Amino acid sequence: MPRSVNAVASRQRRKKILQRVKGQFGRRKNVWTVAKNAYEKGQVYAYRDRRTKKRNFRGLWIQRINAAVREYGMSYSEFMGKLHKKDIELNRKALADLAMNNPDAFKAILDAIK
Fold first, then answer.
1. What is the pLDDT, as a whole number, of residue 2?
2. Residue 111's pLDDT is what?
3. Cα dihedral 109→114→88→110 (10° resolution)
4. Tens-place pLDDT, residues 22-75
5. Predicted confidence (pLDDT) at residue 94 exceeds the cutoff of 90
6. In the CATH scheme, what is the code of domain 25-113?
7. What is the 8-class DSSP label of residue 75?
8. Which of 7, 39, 82, 107 fits as disulfide partner to 113, beta carbons 3.0 to 4.6 Å?
9. Cα 62 to Cα 9: distance, rounded to the nearest angstrom
């Protein structure tokens, strides 16, 4: 029985990876083994950094809230403690947005917890 290799599928598989690494530098864009490794490593970084992005944004929101409450003579930890004590269920993302784009509403929240 003759050997069956299915070259069409193999070529498509390689072409798909090479298409995705187009624009990379050096042999990463046109040598199959190097391109495959570069693509796989890129996918690992993408997976990892989707989680890192969440951490970075939480840190940014905390910094923005802290800067906003310091103007009124309070620290971030004090503010969050009083917020939870008064059962005001606003997350950090919403609070940071209010602090930046709607200072009057943020001041109203501060007045409510004092």
1. 86
2. 93
3. 20
4. 999 999 999 999 999 999 999 999 999 999 999 999 999 999 999 999 999 999
5. yes
6. 1.10.1900.20
7. -
8. 82
9. 50
pTM for the full predicted model: 0.78
**Does pLDDT of 9 surpass 90?**
yes
State how far the alpha carbon of 64 is from the alpha carbons of 76, 90, 96, 110, in Å.
10, 15, 6, 15
Q: Tokens 């059962």 map to which residue?
A: 87
Tokens 């929240």 -> residue: 109
Q: Could you tell me the maximum CA-CA distance found in the chain, to the nearest angstrom?
A: 85
Q: Could you tell me if residue 91 is left (phi over 0), alpha (psi between -120 and 50 degrees) or otherwise beta?
A: beta
Percent of the chain's residues with pLDDT above 70: 100
Structure tokens at 17: 């990876």
